[in-house]
Amino acid sequence: SKEGFDHFMLKEIYQQPEAIRNTIERRLDETGRIQLNEINFTKAEINAIDKVYIVACGTAYHAGLVGKQVLKNALQVEVIADIGSEFRYSDPFIDQNTLVIIVSQSGETADTLASLREAKSKGARILSITNVVGSSIARESDHLLYTWAGPEIAVASTKAYTTQLVAFYLLGLYLGRLKETIADNTYQARLNELKSIAKSVEHVIENSIEPAKAIAEKIIDCNSLFYLGRGLDYYSALEASLKLKELSYIHAEAFAAGELKHGTIALIEAGTPVIVIATQSKTYDKTISNIKSVKARGAYVIGITTSDHKDIEQVCDKAIYIDNKQDIYMPIISVILPQLIAYYTSIFKGNDVDKPRNLAKSVTVE
Ligand code: F6R
b/e per residue, 235-250, with b = 16+ CB within 10 A? Predict the structure, then answer.
């Protein structure tokens, strides 16, 4: 049931703190360290892995993009993220030293499952992150990490996405410790920060309702909208624009903020809404320059950043501040407002937000 919420999607957005807590807390042993029971690598086996592919579709692929960065840092090997429908036809280099990580809420997506089978037949080890116990993907994998999101009813994925991110953070810390690429004090500090994320998500949801409604009203009649970001913020922008497209039917595109000037900036006209996610310290200043160049072409710019970046107000029409966490964790925090913007734009337009047109919850055709 919707338990007092107007729609499943809103209920599921609000369930994110609990889903995140469940995904983490069930994995902590009595000493408070991460224990992943269905992941059975020995130290020698993890040391032998020399390449990782992450394969998924849609929102799960966006989680995989963040996961790529997390695992690159944790394992110090090459990590490639690919789309389920492309991976098999891309002649991937796979052998027994390749780890293929499959991400799927339903565990039944046809393109993703076919990728799993292909990789397995070439000798790769398969590790899956899925939300459905006993799903096809779960059954056919060597290693498993369940997200504890609970059933996701709304077609648009919200709590499955944020718990997939958490799964990657847990996996990175766990494998990094096993491989000894992450020092123990770094491990403790990152794990403590991860444990504090659910509380911040709660806070960000509360603080995002009014801004999301105001932005929804502002963008409701636009023909086209851009989400910009760099690095991890770009991946959040991809997820943000997918949510907006599938629910509001507004044409929304995500661009790496620095790439816009290589063509796409031609689309910016007076009043074009541009929502910029700017949370990553490495690229913050460059992102500000990118904002200035769209502003100069007349864009209406909304900046989403952390409260230590008040200077963003000088270059944006509207600034929204979200909780500040270590950069690697910001994708969980950054996606909340875009989820709510998509939700309110959809309902203000009178769309069926839980069942958007042309879409099914589980895509079982290739
Ligand atoms: C978008 C959405 C889809 C799914 C995709 C993969 O909101 O829900 O993009 O993420 O179809 O589905 P799963 O994760 O079940 O493999």
Answer: bbbbbbbbbbbbbbeb
pLDDT in tens, 245-262: 999 999 999 999 999 999
* C-alpha span between 62 and 233 (Å, rounded): 11
Q: Tell how far the Cα of 105 is from the centroid of ligand 1, in angstroms.
A: 7
Q: Give the Cα separation of 125 and 149 in Å (integer).
A: 25
* Centroid of ligand 1 to alpha carbon of 359 (angstroms): 10
277 CB near ligand 1 (under 6 Å)? no
Rounded to the nearest whole angstrom, what is the distance from the C-alpha of residue 109 to the centroid of ligand 1?
Answer: 8
Pocket of ligand 1 contains residue 112 by CB under 6 Å:
yes
**Where do we find the tokens 């995140």?**
20
Please give the model's pTM, rounded to 2 decimal places.
0.98
Pocket test for ligand 1, best of 243, 363, 366 (most atoms within 8 A of CB): 363
Residues in the chain: 366
CA 25 to chain centre: 20
Does the beta carbon of 84 lie inside 6 Å of ligand 1?
no
Which residues are identified as catalytic?
361
Q: What is the pLDDT of residues 258-300, one digit of tens each?
A: 999 999 999 999 999 999 999 999 999 999 999 999 999 999 9
Residue holding tokens 């100069």? Answer: 296
Contacts of 253 (CB under 8 A, 6+ apart): 224, 225, 226, 227, 241, 264
